[in-house]
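Below is how a single chain appears once it has passed through the pipeline. First comes the sequence as given, then the structure the pipeline wrote out for it. We keep one example in the README because the format questions we get most often are answered faster by looking than by reading.
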Amino acid sequence: MATAAEARASDLAARLGLHQAGRGVWRGACPICGGSRRFQLREGDRAPLVWCFGGCDRQAILAELRRRNLLPDRERPANPEAARREHERRREAEGFRRAGELLAEAALAELPAHDPARADLVELQARLRLDPVAEMDWWRRNKPQLAAAMLEAWRKHERRLRRRTWDFVRAVEGA
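Resulting structure:
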C-alpha cells in the first residue's frame, strides 16, 4: 500500500511513466483507456489531481490507481464533525499566517536595516511558515487581542478579494 508521501504527484508520475509537460504537470497514457497523451496529472494542495481528456471518469481513474497501490485508500474520518472543525481551524491558521506575514513584511519595509527588531520579525515569519496552527494558538493564549485583530484583518481582506472576484466575473459575463 502506498503511503501519503509516495502519493505525491511527481512520484506517481514516475510510476506511471508520464512525462513532465510543465511545472507540476505530467502527461501520458491514461490508466483506464490507455489513450496516449490524454491523461494529465497535476500537483494538488492535498493530493494529486487527475484528468483524462478522453472522458474517463475521474473516480474510476482514482480507483484504478488505488487498485494498483499507487494511491492510498481513502481514509474516512471517524468523527466528521471533529474533522470539519480541524479543517476550519487549519483554514483560520492559514489566514492568520498570511496576515502575520503581510504585517511583518510591511514593518520590515519601514524599519532601518540595522534595527534589532528586524530579526524578531524575520523569526516570526519563519515560525508562521513552519507551523501556523501552533503559532496561532500561542498568539491566542499570550496576545489574544492582537491575534483577534490579525484574524479579523485577514477576514476583511478575504471578503474584499471575493467581492473583487465577483465584480470581475460579472463584468466579464456582462461584456
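The chain has two domains: 9-67, 80-174.

See the next section for the split statistics.
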